[in-house]
Amino acid sequence: MTTDLTSFDLTGRLAVVTGAARGLGMAFATGLAAAGADVVAVDRPGVDLSPVAAAITDQGRACHRYAFDLADTEAIAGWVDDLRRAHGPVHVLVNNAGVARLEHFNEITVAGWRELMRVNVDAVFFLAQRIAEHMIADGVAGRIVNVSSKNGLVAEAGLAHYNASKGAVELLTRSLAAELGPHGITANTIAPGMIATGIDGEFPFDREAFEAAWERRIPLRGGYGTPADCVGALLLLASDAGRYITGTHLVVDGGVLADQMPRLRFMPPYRGTV
Fold this sequence. Notes:
This protein is 37% helix and 13% strand. The chain is an alpha/beta fold and 274 residues long. The protein has a seven-stranded parallel sheet with strand order 3-2-1-4-5-6-7, sandwiched between helices. The two termini are 34 Å apart. It contains seven helices and seven strands, in the order βαβαβαβαβαβααβ. The chain has one domain: NAD(P)-binding Rossmann-like Domain (Rossmann fold), CATH 3.40.50.720.
């Protein structure tokens, strides 16, 4: 029996990627285009989508750019309906957009909590909800991929609201998998670890010391991951190759969650026996 690599081919499919202008979103959008998909690239009003659009069209795929504020959850259903009328059935949704702030638990305000949840949880659910309804109406065996985080599986100080939002995304995704499975639609998460993106660029902390500590903490040689390191997981979940994978998460973290305590650096050096 041979492996059929054409199951990863997304030619003729339309993928929606939120937070597509930079970082993970840009890598996801261009990776989907490389696999053959046309892409709807979505980001906040005022954010420049021209670099990701150029990268997609350079690969011979169509890119439809949209400036949309995902925090406006009341407008999501109408926006999705307009999108469907303009571009046809959506086959893949990548809920990647998210926000994070580093704050002690007692510094988090009601307004700050709600703002973060609107983008990280509310928008993820209501966008998936409406696109899934169109997938069902169109008879599309679609793929929903929500970008979670290792913080959706383990907690981290200073990020109580972010941790809670990503934990919610994990369980929401399983709920979607259970309800959408009978329609042939899968729902999964990708949980990145320490990936070099700009999401924590404004955090008020000693970045040099923090990054040095994390470099020692990550088991896999090479330290921090890159957005490109997460693309393979997405292509599996977004394509026919992952048709029987639903309600689960793929952790892309260089082994961080596999190692509860970085004991190795306190042990004697490795000595081969070959």
